[in-house]
Amino acid sequence: MVNVRSPWVFQDLVEELDRMTRDMGWAFGGTSSYPESVVSGLEIQDDEARLNLDLPGVQESDLELVLEDNLLKVVARREDSHLEAEDVLLRERSFGEFSRAYRLPWTVREEDVEARFEKGVLHLRLKRAPESAPRKIQITTK
Amino acid sequence: MKTKELTKTEHEDQVANTSGRGEVSRMEETRIRPLADVYRDEHAVRILLDLPGAADQDVDVSVHDGVLAVEARTERSPEDVRIYERSFRLDRRMDTSAIEAELQRGVLALRIPFLEEARPRRIEVKSA
After folding, report:
1. Cα separation values, B89 from A84, A121, B47, Å
2. How far apart are CA B57 and CA A56, in angstroms?
3. Stretch (H or E) spanning A77
4. Which end of chain B is more exposed for a tag (fewer CB within 10 A), N or C?
């Protein structure tokens, strides 16, 4: 038995048309890069904050949120999509651990955090904890 | 999700729609080139595209003249409309009529098999 493999030229298999797409994007006033909102994704208001974070391909079980006073930390892990038997023609999507911390201008009400993970996007809604009431200090005189 | 073979007229219509100057100035959309992985084994090419926020009905996969085009329009809010687009030229040994597409957790996975006759074959060698 002889195993005959057709002589593939790997580079010929998938040729991108991205340059064309990019040029068209510029010509029509579009952009090929991610908008600012995707990068930061955090909207802070006086007593509420919303975070939308793109985490495509992340499993819910590989997503962790840590909240400490006014510091929010998002840790996510994405599996390597490459299968052992495959050749890699193009690889842009990162894998492994992702971590990002956000500092809010106020303390978060921990019991009132809304977290939703849908279609690869994490949606968070954080509310401001009420300030502790001003405390009067009694001064004793001798 | 729609996967279709475009006729020439449909394709020209699409091009006309996206290149019309008036059309674009009306829209407040952000065009995004999604990140991609492309892998191949002896049976097929596998393309993965990050399309966070996209649902099945938002994604359009088409093949015309050997070009595979993916477009997804997501509307997170009236102010946040994103159009993901990316195209790949496919080798003619690929079977464009048998493309499989699956969208999971914001990642589109496309599998394009090689045409039957283009696949590596085992050839029996007989001794005389």
Report:
1. 25, 29, 12
2. 17
3. strand A71-78
4. C
Chain B residue numbers with beta carbons less than 8 Å from the beta carbon of A116 are none
CB contact under 8 A, A89 and B19: no
* ipTM, two decimals: 0.70
Residue type present at position A67: L
Q: Which of A55, A34, A71 has its CA nearest to residue A123? A: A55
pLDDT digits (tens, 9 = 90+) for A74-99: 999 999 999 999 999 999 998 898 88
pTM of the model: 0.72
Which residue in B24, B55, B123 is closest to A119 by CB distance? B55
Instruction: Give me Rg for the CA atoms of chain B.
Output: 18
Cβ-defined contact of B89 to A5 (cutoff 8 Å): no
CA distances to A13, A117, B81, B85, B96 from B64, in Å: 16, 35, 26, 15, 9
State the nearest Cα–Cα gap between B3 and chain A, in angstroms. 19
The phi and psi torsions of A90 (rounded to 5 degrees) equal -155, 135
